[in-house]
Design goal:
By secondary structure, the protein is α+β, with helices and mostly antiparallel strands. It contains three helices and three strands; from the N terminus they run αββαβα. Strands 1-3-2 form a three-stranded mixed sheet, sandwiched between helices.
């Protein structure tokens, strides 16, 4: 008798599992706004301020993970910022933003904001 009860109960459980609706996959999009402060170096080539009509190219220097953090000193360890610190001159603008996060990449909105403000169109 107990076996028949277990069997009926098992059938009920299996039936209720089968009666559940199919999966539902939603295709959606969510906009998020994250405010964060970014520090950066911006290098102006010699004669930039005097030659207001001249257009200068822009080099965007994105550092590696070891230079991330909250001190711009880290950004000067490699690449163009290191060379500029040693006296090297370049004929173009250099933007070197620092990623404050160890895991995330630099927000390109910063790059767009800075280049739109400082670069001549």
């Amino acid at each position: 008798m107990l076996q028949k009860l277990y069997f009926i109960l098992l059938c009920f459980v299996i039936q209720s599992c089968a009666a559940q609706s199919k999966y539902k996959l939603v295709d959606a999009e969510q906009e998020t706004v994250i405010k964060e402060n970014y520090s950066y170096y911006l290098y102006y080539p010699e004669g930039y301020e005097e030659n207001t009509e001249e257009k200068y190219p822009l080099l965007l220097f994105l550092h590696g993970g070891g230079e991330s953090g909250d001190s711009l000193v880290y950004v000067k360890r490699n690449g163009p910022p290191k060379l500029i610190q040693r006296g090297k001159k370049f004929p173009f603008l250099i933007l070197a933003p620092q990623n404050p996060q160890k895991k995330n990449v630099v927000e390109y909105t910063l790059c767009n904001a800075v280049t739109g403000h400082y670069c001549r169109k």
